[in-house]
Amino acid sequence: MASENPTVLFQARPSEGVALTSPNLCDGRETWPIVHALAATLNEPDPLPALAEVLGTHFGAGACLLLCHYPDTHGVTYTCWHRGAAPAGGQLRVTEADSPLEGQRHFALGLIQQTLDLSAGRARLWWQKGVAGLLRNEAGPPAWLRSMANCTAIAVDGAGLRGAVLLLRAGGLAVEPTVQANLASLGAIAFHQHYLQGQAQRHTEQLRYLNYLKEDFLSTLNHELRTPLTSMMLAIRMLRRPDLTPERSAMYLDILEQQCTREINLVNDLLMLQTMESKVPVAVRQPTDLGKLLTDLADQHQASFQQAQLRLALQLPSHPVLLSTDAERLTKVLIELVGNARKYSAPETVVTLALADNQAENGRVTLQISNLGAAIEADDLPHIFDKFRRGANATKDGIAGTGTGLALARGLVEQLAGTIKVSSQPSDAQLWQTCFTLELERHDRSPNS
């Protein structure tokens, strides 16, 4: 035998003590068509705007506001419908404390919490201030809000979300508790669906971006692999000439060696990057004089910097800075950062290696590699250490590279229990200063401990 009471779709909190004054909203037989109409909105690509409009229309409200907070992601979403206008809303993410969006977020969270407290009989709902603050724009609260005198609040408390449905009206509006429970069920389902659709969209965008990175990497890798091979092939053909002088022969052998070394380094970087993701090799620590390591590195690269019309400057403390570290990995990181600075520096500028011993402050050693050149775009800066990511300026200016160097450098620094970060700040009207900051822990214990 079927139950005389309508089935509740989803466990929710109906408001207590609601007067039953509207026969259309109290009789279960009359409300089921409304519930079915609301359920149909879940078939929409984004159910929240359709749900807000159907709720407001069917219940004779002047406006309907849907609010939801997803604690796991700190996301807050709101959707507002009022008569004579299409539903509108948006996402309220965590921003600066004094920003308008953070103010809207504060009001939205307040309305949700008050609605949950109201359903538990712990507080009253002061909705006017919250709704006015949430919907305020440059001209102030919306004009239609002044005609709203009553609010029916329905709490939505589902798994992984906390929300509220607010029905605003000029006159009285009473909704039977069982109907409220069903509306809370539909609201929870719609909020979950909205969240999952947002996740699916983000995953689609991420997949599209990863495909772009893959295509860009393959194109770049094709160029980086073919260029040395082409030079090597030309050198081999020239070496086959019977009239080749010893001097020319030596020159072509040098070209072969240089391009072969370039190819080997590229392949080694790719293999090392892959190895770092699958397992973390044990670092072989040994006493290392960081100042001497930097001095040797600068001496080895002075010629290439002079050829690029650059100067490489060292700023070292007066006393030795000793670390117990893996010198080979650290050297590879430094070669990558110094080479990166050389490629992206403007001619006639200085690349600076500055070493600071912060033993008195936090016991760490700080090394900064800074250069002057084009800015790192704001969109590129958070992803500068991503695999295969190359900045817009690198692609535009045709600067050689595969986008693996900085990703490899970050991985090696993390293996050395250090940190690496980057900043890009304007230096004058044309040039920006890009600075990579490397922090390493000072190891006073024995290398094998």
Word description of this protein:
The longest helix has 63 residues, at 177-239. The strands form three sheets. Strands 3-2-1-5-4 form a five-stranded antiparallel beta sheet, with helices on both faces. The protein has a five-stranded mixed beta sheet with strand order 7-9-10-12-11, with helices on one face. Strands 6-8 form a two-stranded antiparallel sheet. Strand 11 (419-426) and strand 12 (432-441) form a beta hairpin. It has three domains: 23-201, Beta-Lactamase, CATH 3.30.450; 210-278, Helix Hairpins, CATH 1.10.287.130; 286-441, 2-Layer Sandwich (Heat Shock Protein 90). The chain contains eleven helices and twelve strands. With 449 residues, it is of the alpha+beta class.
> How confident overall, as mean pLDDT?
79
DSSP helix count? 11
Query: Helicity level, as a percent range?
Result: 40-55%
- Can you list the strand order of the major beta sheet? 3-2-1-5-4
Class per helix and strand makeup: alpha+beta
What is the β-strand count?
Answer: 12
Give the CATH level 1 class of the largest domain. Alpha Beta
Number of domains: 3
